[in-house]
Design goal:
Length: 512
Amino acid sequence: MNPRGPRPNPSTEVVDGIIERASRYLLDAPMGSDPVIAHASPSELATAFAATVGLGFADDAAAHSVSEVLASVDQIIDYSVHTSHPRFVNQNFAAADPVAVVGDWLGAALNTTAATFEAAPVFTLMESAVLHKLGRMVGYVEDGVSATDTPVGVPVLPPGIFCAGGSMGTLLALQLARHRLQPEMTVRGASGDRLVLFVSDTGHYAASKSAALLGIGTEGVVKVATDHEGAMLPDALDVAITEGIARGQTPFAVIGTAGTTVTAAFDDLDAVADICESRGLWLHVDAAYGGSALFSPTHAARLRGVHRSDSCVWNLHKMVGMTQQCTALLVKAPAQLEECFATHADYLFQSDKLYADYDSGDRTFQCARRIDVLKLWLAWKVGGDAGFAARIDHAVAMADYTRNRIAESDVAFVPIVAGTFTNVVFVWVPPHLRPLAAPEAVDLDVLTELNRCAPLIKARLQAAGTGLIGFQPVHGVNSFRMICMSPKLQPSDVDALLEAIETAGNDVAATQ
């Protein structure tokens, strides 16, 4: 017998230590005066972790002490990008909702899968309830339709499924589109038809990836011309479909975009739906980014016509701050999900077990799925529709403030697209090139210099931890893309970021 009592369980100490650190980080998130990232190179990271537990594993990996593991946790936090920082404007996500974070922890602790009712009774009903609410917002479900008839009755089929991200949602939607055209395809395989789908030339690359995986081929993806802001031109779509038919191809789907990745442009979904209906084509809406505008009475009209689509993918881990990841694929005719994906595995999907009608696993490609709905359900219950709406409205207000600041800068910053939503796309102009002619009108030498500036300026901001902002070519020039999405972003942060870009830009210009 040990007179000193039982020895502490190392696992308990590690768990307690991680929880304490994670909670402290969550509740005392970085402020504007803190760095967005403690920048380090790959070799510097490897060296830093070598002082605690190392990043790699030996052939005979030994256990480490509690203090060493917790020291490595401190390093993980210190060296990670602080996406909760108000000056993290780099990606189409930012600042996870604290309730969503702890909801994610709870879901992980309960560690079940959403495939069957018997494994996830609460979460099965929760998914159905949330999907019905989202379906009503999109316009697939009539107001007042509930998630279930009775707690023990036959369920009302949810209008969709949760899936592993927006790209997966688009992949599944395109398989549904092909299945509607070729219902025997799942049994007999693909026909000899040269299938073709259409997406704007600013649409997400998920279209091409999905075509490659589905055996359609990337040559079966037609990129349709867009306007200056990045929205699909409906007339160009109609012409492209006609040309595809003339080439002997079989059009089967169109992807409309509600919030493009770079400029946050919204296609005219009503006009696109008119064409799809007249041509008998499946309309899928990629609302991975912009779908959350539906929460805001001020901005919901950007998705006018979405109710006429056949499917819609919506990432809740983007604009409303759910943790990675939380994606819903909504389907107007949800019975097709089982028709397309079911294999009726008799070890799992048994019709004679309790409440088998509630099982969702045979309605999608994926079987085991994380309980992504829990964090959304909790955050929604805490904040309600108004909480999410406020987040959207704040994001657009901060983008409008940024656009006004750029306009007031006169010659230092030049917008590349006007923009009306959350993304602000612009270039910084070196002093000796001011005032700059329209970027598309400048000569090659000037364009080359402009294109060098953005990555060099970003590198300086990144190294200093001042801010994290993306860049990419838009209309032929490397442009900054400031995504004003974080609820923590304030006018002072916008001012500080623009000032930091100007300072770094002047340093870059002095070395050219």
